[in-house]
Design a protein that fits this description.
Layout lengths: L13 E5 L5 H15 L6 E3 L5 H17 L4 E6 L5 H13 L4 E5 L21 H11 L3 E6 L10 H13 L4 E4 L5 H14 L8 E2 L1 E2 L5 H11 L5 H11 L7 H21 L5 E4 L5 H9 L12
Parallel strand pairs: 1-2, 1-9, 2-3, 3-4, 4-5, 5-6, 6-7, 8-9
Helix pairs in contact: 3-4, 4-5, 5-6, 8-9, 9-10
Bound molecules: flavin-adenine dinucleotide.
Flavin-adenine dinucleotide binds next to strand 3, helix 4, helix 5 and strand 6.
Length: about 300
């Protein structure tokens, strides 16, 4: 069985996150990005899981196609939102049928308003920790979970946030992927907290998530996804590039965004991050520019097991 190969070579591997396409045009765009990344040999690619109905069906189908029609190693995100345990088991079965063995287990956010009140499905799970156990009990799956450099927005404090992350790892998760962040010190502090909380679980990889900012609009998206405002120093650099006319200065803003992601990537590599995970929004260009700046290339040898 193929598991994540994030310990397997001296150069730091990278991985990318895709989102489920909402329609046929978006699906075509996703596949263009998939084929571009395929040439760069990511350690794995992950596919988020979210909105209801037909998008969910499409998510399961497209994630399965990543396993059967590409050379990539897919990690399927799975959330507990609006699902009974029976439905969650059947989704895991559907992923397994297409050969997917790597699952990122999440509780998910309330639909519509991510900051709204979380309601557990009457026959579902309350926390990701329970879902980790369910997936592990279903078979030989490699499970990852979410971690939060600044703490999850619902956690009362950083100590309880860390304790719950350690509980997810103890329940059988093999690694975590962080929420995106823009201050590398937050990632380093998370790593220290987890080691202090549980030295055994603290040895498991914490994969940092990066998102290259390509416009002031992406700033809003980044703040929405991370649930936190960007650090003032980062905003200042972007707004300085935008000047009085963000539209006319789009290229300058993008350049600074790529520069920031490159600097963060380099510092994370220097600090021993096990892998760099990029949010791509299904576009390859910005992430591949950052990777090129960091010395990765399409001619890089595949990461061998
Ligand atoms: C890398 C990454 C990928 C993501 N992908 C998706 C995606 O594909 N789809 C999507 O909808 N969302 C996704 N999210 C968002 C995620 O679902 C939300 O942040 C969600 O609010 C928390 O999920 P979790 O798995 O960390 O939940 P949990 O670990 O269950 O934590 C939720 C809250 O409960 C607290 N808690 C945990 N265990 C306990 C306990 N035993 N008792 C009391 N409190 C507890 C935690 O501290 C936290 O505040 C992703 C997040 C990350 C970082």
């Amino acid at each position: 069985m193929q598991s994540l190969r994030i310990h397997s070579r001296s150069a730091v591997p990278f991985s990318v996150e895709f989102n489920p396409p909402r329609d046929a045009a978006a699906e075509a765009r996703l596949w263009r990005a998939v084929r571009e990344f395929e040439r760069m040999h990511p350690a794995f690619v992950s596919m988020t899981y979210g909105a209801g109905g037909s998008t969910r069906d499409r998510t399961v189908r497209v994630t399965g196609q990543l396993a059967t029609e590409t050379t990539l190693l897919p990690v399927a995100h799975l959330t507990a939102v609006e699902h009974s345990v029976a439905e969650l088991r059947s989704l895991v079965g559907a992923y397994a049928d297409s050969g997917i063995r790597n699952i990122l287990v999440l509780r998910g956010d309330p639909p519509g308003d991510p900051l709204g009140e979380w309601t557990k499905h009457p026959h579902g799970v309350a926390y990701a920790e329970e879902l980790v156990r369910i997936v592990r009990d279903l078979g030989d799956f490699h499970v990852g979970v979410a971690s939060f450099p600044q703490g999850h927005h619902r956690s009362p404090d950083l100590d309880s946030d860390t304790a719950y992350l350690c509980a997810k790892l103890r329940a059988g998760a093999e690694y975590s992927i962080t929420q995106m962040f823009f201050d590398v010190d937050d990632y380093l502090r998370l790593r220290d907290r987890v080691i202090a909380c549980d030295p055994v679980e603290g040895a498991k990889p914490i994969i940092p998530e990066l998102m290259p900012i390509t416009s002031l609009r992406t700033v809003e998206r980044a703040e929405e996804l991370s649930g936190r405002p960007l650090p003032a120093a980062v905003l200042e650099r972007l707004h300085k590039a935008a000047g009085d006319d963000p539209e006319a200065n789009r290229a300058a803003v993008r350049e600074v965004g790529i520069e920031i992601a490159t600097e963060m990537g380099q510092r994370l590599i220097d600090e021993g991050a096990p892998c760099l995970h990029f949010i791509t929004l299904n576009f390859a260009k910005a992430t591949s520019e950052v990777l090129t700046n960091l010395g990765y290339g399409v001619s890089a040898a595949p990461i061998s097991a």
